[in-house]
Hints:
Blueprint: E1 4-15, E2 18-30, E3 35-39, H1 46-53, E4 61-69, E5 72-73, H2 79-85, E6 90-93, H3 97-100, H4 107-119, H5 123-136, H6 142-145, H7 155-167, E7 173-177, H8 185-202, E8 205-210, E9 222-227, E10 230-236, H9 237-242, H10 247-254, E11 303-305, E12 311-313, E13 322-325
Parallel strand pairs: 3-8, 3-9, 6-7, 7-8
Antiparallel strand pairs: 1-2, 1-4, 4-5, 9-10, 10-12, 11-12, 11-13
Helix pairs in contact: 4-5, 5-7, 7-8
Amino acid sequence: MALLEVKNLEVSFETPDGVVQAVNGMSFTLDQGETLAIVGESGAGKSQMVLAFMGLLAENGSVRGEALFHGNDLLKMKPRGLNGIRGKQIAMIFQDPMTSLNPFLTIEKQMAEVVMHHQGLRREEAKAHAVEMLRAVRIPDPEERIKQYPHEYSGGMRQRVMIAIGLLCEPELLIADEPSTALDVTVQAQITELVSELRKQTRMSLMLITHDLAAVAEVADRIIVMYAGEAVETGGVDDIFYRPQHPYTRGLLASVPRLDRASDDELQAIPGNPPNLQELPEGCRFRDRCTEAMEQCRKRPPLWVSDDGRSSRCFLPMEGGRTLQNATEPEHDE
């Protein structure tokens, strides 16, 4: 049994301008010890999908589908039961550590309360455990730094604190939502390496949410590429990077700087912008930006799958794949 199994997840929001369908029919599994990357442009629905099964959606949001963690549906749990899982069995690192950390509390108080609540440790035991975790994420002089407030840390240090908090209770699943956003390139590499190293040491599962394909190249086992609220391609890292099937995936890869690219070879930006989720185009959602669009793309594209778990939603045939659904079937798929 998979550690996490998401089935036909849909997330929508009631707004003054109408209903926004942020996530449509997402389905995937995550095994114990596996690293899964969810990749796509801003607004693709990556974060809202995770916030939905974590029970953290905004008040105007609603969710349908299933999110089975050890076979138990997170979406049907009462707040008390979900609170017992969040932070202990499933932990999440949010995008902005400055807004995620309480500026009025010391790092010690914020970290100690997590393990005191979930593991029942006394304060001194909790502090000692927190110090060791800060040391594990390479915070220098953790015995002194733990007494400080978030504003006394740099951006990279605050992100390390968030990772340490996420790992305090040794969760089975760690979700990292853009863990290196707003950090310089050197710190980004250090954070990515740190998360990967800690995953190997603890055998936890890891879900990385990012807009940057290059950021997950060395750490992910599988990748799901999202566009306008749905998965357009899934596959192993080598498949996605060396044998991409969907035009959107190829567009993302073409826009990434590469050392083996000629100096006069310009980056290829994907034309246009993602669609308005309240006014989605008929048929393929990527049609208006796709350089390979055809007349038939005005219909719902089929889902191609292969025996090794690869998939692509496009009218272009997938290498080694067969169609699981045709263009006339409903959108509750994947």
